[in-house]
Amino acid sequence: MHPLLRFTLDLFEPNQPPAQVEKGPVAPKKAADFSHPQANREVSLGQTRVAYAFNRGQRRSIGFSVSVDGLAVRAPKWVTLRDVDAALQAKASWILRKLHDSRERQTRLADQHIVWQDGAELPFLGQTLTLRLDPEHRFGAAGAQLLTEDVAAAPDQAAQTRQVLCISLSRQATPEQIRDVVQAWLMRQAKRIFQERLDHFAPLLGVQWKKLSLSNAGTRWGSARVDGSIRLNWRLVHFKMSVLDYVVAHELSHLRVMDHSPRFWDTVRTLVPDYAAQRALLKSEAVPRWD
């Protein structure tokens, strides 16, 4: 048939419904690999899907932050969503690395959960501390006392010791009672150690701290104010002394430089030359969960 005639017939013939295509079950949408609790946008970074919390605010540039919750993005009001997506792709490697690091840290934290009972173990100044209930209170200190005792070793092995924290509680003590006694003891140790290290480092910088407060913050390890007030997280006593010294030096350095400029880090370096390694340990090592 001539094409023109076929075209004319098509104009007058009734429309035929398209053939029905049999459809199988619709696959459910795959959940994001990383999802923020307040996620309202999603992006694919390579093969990884990330649901993130997006907000606009009074700022000059797009900002990214990765916490235990996941990725949060803040952008100026005038920035388009296309620009946000482009910025996410440009920072993809950094974002994915931080998200994976955060997830690994949370896994380690879960493994560090303490069961508050006789024989429980927790880190103290980088070493393992064993809890022992001592209802007869066979030591002189009030509440708890740290002891060092020998550990039986094979004849061909060197002698070993372990640290034991004796607690004057009965065998029927509740987990909450044990936890509270241990926390009180750790906080006393923290304040004593912090004061010693502040007094050690402050003269080296030519600064003077005025007041020390203990913090119980979830993620912040310390802070300093221009008036000489220092706040340090008591949980730092879980880390070894080199890490603790880095945090003390960090806050004292703020009494000289109240920002994180190159001059500030040069100041920290005068006290802790390997501060970068200690800072990395602070970020990577897990501390016990106190819930």
UniProtKB/TrEMBL annotation:
Keywords: Hydrolase. The keyword Hydrolase applies. GO terms for molecular function: hydrolase activity. Residues 61-284 form the YgjP-like metallopeptidase domain. The keyword Hydrolase applies. CDD domains: M48_yhfN_like. It comes from the Bacteria. This is Metal-dependent hydrolase.
